[in-house]
Amino acid sequence: MKQNVQLRCRAEAYRGRQPYIFISYCHDDGSRVYPLIERLERDGFRVWYDEGITPGDEWSETIATHLEGCSVFVAAITEASVNSHNCRNEINFAVQRNKDFVSLFLDDVKLSQGMELLLSSVQGIFRSKYRSEEDYIQKLYEMESLQRCRDQEQAIAPAMADFIDEDETVTLTQGIPGLQLGSLETFLLRVKTQEKIHISRNEFTIGRSSMQADYVLEGEYSISRRHATIRKMRGNYTITDNNSLNHVGLNGRLIVPGTEYDIGAYDIISLAKEHLVFFKNYNEAARRVSGYELRDGQGVWKLGTKPVTRVGSQPLGPDGSGNEICLADPGVCPQQAFLVAATEGLYIVDISENRTTSVNGRQLPFCTKIRLQAGDRIDFAGRTMQFDIRL
Question: How high is the pLDDT of residue 141?
């Protein structure tokens, strides 16, 4: 994994059949648009943007397909976007298809007559009219069409974040739709050992040194003494690479040392060869009632009984290492992949040495969570299984 300091959005482009938002923007505006996309995803909205295009895809066909399928079209309007041929094409396409359309005016730009005509019949939200960024975003969230693109379980979490602390749980009671009776927890799960790591301080350091770290990753000498620090402020969490020797990855991308990055529910944190999953306000009871299965001609494996289920050739050991789904097939790595039982579904993450995990014929990017849909066919280095949901 090569270091790449180019500005990238860390939100995962939505993949599925439920209503979703299409974000149209100019890449020159990435520093302003990417935080909004990440905020939308963190708050439970299903969002697609052009980082969802995989290598080998036909760019124009992929854009058109996702434009046709979206429920809401959101255009970030700036000086750069109104002069972008691609942005104008997307806007024209959305208008022709009578999509629910929102123009987010990040700048007070002078529109050409043609662009003014296109946008005259659609709703516009002007950043300059609001005192704060939060007021501006809340105005966007008030749109009924946007709410159709939101997972209701995740929508509840931000409202509860102000009174949920890392060292306590909150009992859920009746009257909260979509959630089962249980408790919410925030923790890191160490994939290698299935150990829950509760973040016991507002500034929590992970590393190899028992003198310098709040949590010690034992048995892994590629970890630096103070490898990374997680900070909590007002219910939000960030991670910083403390200039470690072997770097920190977040959802498959290296982060810049010394820079804080927001982390959200089910984000994958890689410290050298170690992988941690961040569970925020996790609903234990909802996870227990999930009926996920992997099946092939050789057996059926139940999923969702644990927050993480590991897949690989190494059998379970007394120290907790190994895999709940042990595959002895040739080519399967000792640690091939793992599955995360989220409140809203099941994610798969590839951690194989030779990138040999694929879904429906598409190779998975390293250490990036992909949400599974019923009927998906997963290939683990030649061993093919089908994912099903049993209610």
Answer: 84
pLDDT at 7: 66
Q: What residues are paired with 223 via a beta bridge?
A: none
Q: Which of 268, 236, 238 minimizes the C-alpha distance to 254?
A: 268
In whole angstroms, what is the distance from residue 67 CA to residue 85 CA?
16
8 A C-beta contact, residue 166 and residue 235: no
Q: Is 62 helix (H, G, I), strand (E, B) or coil?
A: helix
Q: Containing H/E element for 90?
A: helix 85-96
* DSSP code string of 252-283: TEEPPTT-EEEE-TT-EEEETTEEEEEEEEEE
pLDDT of residue 2: 40
Burial of 262 (0-12, 13-18, 19+ CB in 10 A): middle
pLDDT in the model for residue 158: 41
Q: Which two tokens stand for residue 240?
A: 């910083």
d(CA 218, CA 222): 11
CA R_g for the chain: 22
Spatial distance between the Cα atoms of 246 and 227, rounded to a whole number of angstroms: 9
- Cite the DSSP H helix spans in 121-233: 133-141, 144-147, 152-160
Give the relative orientation of helices 59-69 and 85-96 as an angle to the nearest 10 degrees.
40
Distance CA 304, CA 284 (A): 10
State the pLDDT at residue 152. 56
- Distances, alpha carbon 242 to alpha carbons 227, 245, 252, in Å: 6, 9, 18
| pLDDT averaged per 10 residues, the chain (length 391) | 56 86 92 90 89 61 90 93 90 90 90 80 83 81 83 47 37 37 80 93 92 86 93 89 94 92 94 94 67 89 90 92 93 96 90 94 94 94 91 60
Q: In DSSP terms, which residues pair with 205 in a beta bridge?
A: 229
- Interatomic CA distance for residues 127 and 103, integer angstroms: 11
Question: Which string of DSSP letters, residue by residue, matches 305-329?
Answer: SSSEEEEESSPP-TTS-S-SEE---
Question: pLDDT value at position 1?
Answer: 39
**Cα–Cα distance between 316 and 318 in angstroms, integer?**
7
In eight-state DSSP terms, residue 50 is: G
